[in-house]
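Sample log: Lrp/AsnC family transcriptional regulator.
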Amino acid sequence: MEQAGVIIGRVALIDPAKVGAPLTAMVLIRTNAHDAKWMAEFQTTLRSLPEVVGAYRMTGDLDYVLRVRVADVPAYDNFYKRLTSRISVSDISASFVMEEIKDTTAVPL
């Protein structure tokens, strides 16, 4: 499966709480900019922020959803300030995960 490109990598799964990142925030972003330059800058910015563990371009009312791992709300505020100082968005909000019911990297086969 590796030779066929089905397996694209191997990882170690880390307990986020044991490494100081127990809080998950789902960050909802809307933007008025949809040009290639803005999108490239946005992607570069997200890739440079280690707190971003998932980033998704969406259909519907939202443009992007980020999954962010941080230590606590002040750490999220620091992340928020760094993100918004580097890239322009029209609206950003976050919801904090109270309980992880299911979180997996498995792909259903």
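Observation: The two ends are 13 Å apart (CA to CA).
Observation: The mean pLDDT is 96.
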